[in-house]
Amino acid sequence: MFDREFYQAELLDEIKAMKSDVLMPAKSYKRIKKMIEEYIEGTGKRIRRYTFSSAPGGKDQFSQNVYLILNAKKGHSLIEVKRDFQNGKISLDDATKLIYAIMTTQKPRGQTSSWASRTSRLYRKRWNIETGFSDLNRMGRRWKSKYDNTRYLDLLVRMLLYNSWKINRAYLKKQQKKSKKNQPWTLQDNQDVLVETFLEA
Q1: What are the respective helix, strand and coil percentages of the chain, to the nearest 5?
Q2: Is there a single domain that holds both residue 89 and residue 159?
Q3: Does a structural domain hold residue 125?
Q4: Domain that holds residue 192
């Protein structure tokens, strides 16, 4: 399954012809925004169909259906966002900012709610792998200083940051098992918290 952003009907058609599927983030098209609003207002479902079509006037016309899956951003849940809006705690605009959409050419399998959850977890896992490589690249970037002492200090700080991230992530995973909540903890998340802590001190 591909997880790149293929937003052209021709490309999607070619990938399907290769007997492969696409899993990608959804752009904020006007119709997709409307689907998110409909879900929040209670008139739409979490899983919707969306159709990509070739630009009019082209030599060959292509059309490809995908399935749109709505998810809540980190630290929130779809049910909570919808409930808070319907109870008047947040506006429709604020609620839509807490929800994002992914799309796939793969047809739902089995119970739709379970399929949506599995697909969302797969997307999140792939996203965490990509951000993990970005973290490693940041950890391994070259030093600008020509002095050995400065390079050693820089390496030491990076190691401490990396180790604190691993320790904090392991601790959070242990706590999340108790609360049955799954929230990723990236190296960037760890660095942001450390910066805020030092600034408040």
Answers
A1: 55, 15, 30
A2: no
A3: no
A4: 142-200
Is residue 129 one of the residues assigned to a domain? no
Outline where DSSP puts E strands in 40-98. 47-53, 63-72
pTM value > 0.70 = no
Could you say which of 111, 134, 154 is where a domain stops?
111
Residue 93 lies in a domain: yes
Cα separation values, 187 from 26, 61, 106, 159, 164, Å = 25, 45, 32, 12, 9
Helix (H) / strand (E) containing 94? helix 92-97
pLDDT in single tens digits along all 201 residues of the chain: 555 556 676 777 777 777 787 888 888 888 999 999 999 999 999 999 888 775 655 555 567 788 899 999 888 899 999 999 999 999 999 999 999 998 888 888 888 888 888 888 877 776 655 555 455 555 555 556 677 777 778 778 777 877 787 787 777 777 766 666 666 777 677 777 776 666 655
Report the SS3 class of residue 174: helix
